[in-house]
Amino acid sequence: MGLKSYSRARAVHVMLVYTGGCNGCDIEIVNCIFSPKYDAEQYKVFLTWNPREADVLVVTGPVTKHVEEPLKAIYESIPEPKAVVAAGACATMGGVYKNIYGDIPSEEIAGPVDEIIPVAAKIPGCAVRPEDVLSGVVAALPLLLNAK
Amino acid sequence: MDNDNKVTTQVIETEVPMGTIHSAALEPYRLRLFVEDEIVRDAELTVGVNHRGIERIMEGLPVEKANSLTEKICGICSNSHIWNSCLVAEKGLEIDVPPRAEYIRIIMEELERLHSHLLYLAHGSEVLGHETFAMRLFYIRETVMELLRMIGGNRVQYGASIIGGVRPRCDLDEMRIQKIIEGMDYVEEKVLDFADRFIRDPMVMSRISGIAAITKEDARRLATTGPSLRATGIGEDLRLDMKQYEPFEFDVITQDTGDVKANLLMRVLEIPESIKIIRQAIKDLPDGKITNRSWEMQDTDIIRSYIEVPRGKLYHSYKIEDGRVRNSIVRTPSITNINTMEFACIGTHITDAQLAIVQCDPCFTCTDRAVQIVDQPFRKNRII
Ligand code: SF4
Question: Is the dihedral of CA B128, B132, B134, B140 positive or negative?
Fold first, then answer.
């Protein structure tokens, strides 16, 4: 393991972006990283709200038209190497908001996330389980650690 | 404050924008604070980033499907939405809900109130800068989340209510009842312990007493609802009028000052009341079936239903045509509490503005369905 990978593995910063879901996934993710029960901080995974600090971008929600551009901007401002994790049914396939098939189709949704920015890992669930969030972030880690 | 204006020769007026994505706020919203010498003179809070048009996509859905969609309005009070949405259909189709199902619904609702209030307190402590409190509260909240997962099968979005009762999966057997009783004992003990430490902490108290106070009259004028209204001294709680809550004894808690302290204490003191309701429901849990399936779909007029949810009054209405939902309207408590948040910011020091927002328990994902009509889109030029 090179020096870079070694130090990257010791401070994985996760940025959470909320793009119009129902808040269920977000609270579960914050819960999973912060709260004493799951406590991802013990594995040196930290939550940040500064894209320039972030390594992993966790996106929840179906990406409404309003946040499409900001999401791209956030993605652009994260330094390489970076990985995007789409969390929740909304982020992985548009969730109920995109695929409910009522009389009037939803026009507000630009997502799912992988149509807007490249996604490295997808976490299913509505809402995601904290255990799954951890394994999703871990699945995206090789991308960061093995980067030059 | 008017005097300041006269004395100072040069007024420093700045706009401090915050958001849309900001570390103190989980959800995206935009807050503009118009500041003069570090005192907030005016505030503007804009939502709309996560508008998904729930009511519009509900149009024409089968009633059962629409009910489960309402659950996706909010990940914090998901049970309240699906419950109220089922109540609308039950009212319109005149379906009797078996008593056991009513009790289980109440248990779910009160568990949800517990987790919502604990989340509020944790969020509040975090904004206060007291991370230890936040962590402790998150830990207590885990117990409630585990109970919700045990009953509903999921930590968020449990989908307990269906038309005519509750889902068979949510029935309570002996083991579950025992777990709930133990969980409630644990939560009560820990929350009282927390309350004691919280009240006796002079640092915390000095940070929250007298900040962003709202008077009764202002609360009425701004149509504040829920615990934020009760924190100003008005004991209005829709649970008193709901027939589902009739068998239960509980007190409506009020505070008088309407400031951040009153709001935080309000939620702390409501937790033992919810626990009281859950204990009574467990003790008197009636036997019998949990779903009434003998009903027929028919066309109805527009039916309305109000219930009390953790943040205040929730309104759902729709009419049924050929088993499909038409003209759905959802009105969540946060839409009126937004005005209160803006108002509470005015006159506070800029460092307290975030507290003033948080004191009203912001939840914008449910609020983002409304169409807002603003006559002056930019208030920046307004003379403050
Ligand atoms: S996946 Fe489910 S819980 Fe997560 S944001 Fe979407 S609707 Fe909410």
Answer: negative
Neighbouring residues of A22: CB distance < 8 A, sequence distance ≥ 6 = A61, A90, B72, B73, B74, B75, B78, B157, B365
ipTM of the complex: 0.89
- Other Cβ atoms less than 10 A from the Cβ of B367: the count is 25
Residue A88 CA to ligand 1 centre (angstroms): 6
pLDDT in tens, chain B (384 residues): 444 544 445 555 777 777 666 655 667 777 788 887 778 888 877 777 777 778 888 888 889 888 888 888 888 888 899 999 999 999 999 999 999 999 999 999 999 999 999 998 988 888 888 888 888 899 999 999 999 999 988 888 888 899 989 998 888 999 999 999 999 999 999 999 999 998 898 888 888 888 888 888 888 888 888 888 898 888 888 888 888 898 999 989 888 888 888 889 889 999 999 999 999 999 999 998 999 888 888 899 899 999 999 888 899 999 998 888 988 888 888 888 888 888 888 888 888 888 888 888 877 777 665 554 444 444 433 322
Distance CA B25, CA B3 (A): 34
Return the CATH class of domain A3-146. alpha beta
**Which of B22, B52, B119 shows the shortest C-beta gap to A108?**
B52
A20/B50 touch (CB, cutoff 8 Å), yes or no: yes
What is the C-alpha separation between B270 and B251, in angstroms, rounded?
9
The binding-site residues of ligand 1, defined as CB within 6 angstroms of any ligand atom, are A 21-22, 24-25, 60-61, 88-90, 95, 126-127; B 72, 75, 156-157
Report whether A87 contacts A133 (CB < 8 A): yes
CATH tag, B14-383? 1.10.645.10
Return the residue in B126, B146, B155 with the most chain A beta carbons within 10 A, the one to mutate for interface testing.
B155
The pair of structure tokens assigned to A89 is 């049914």
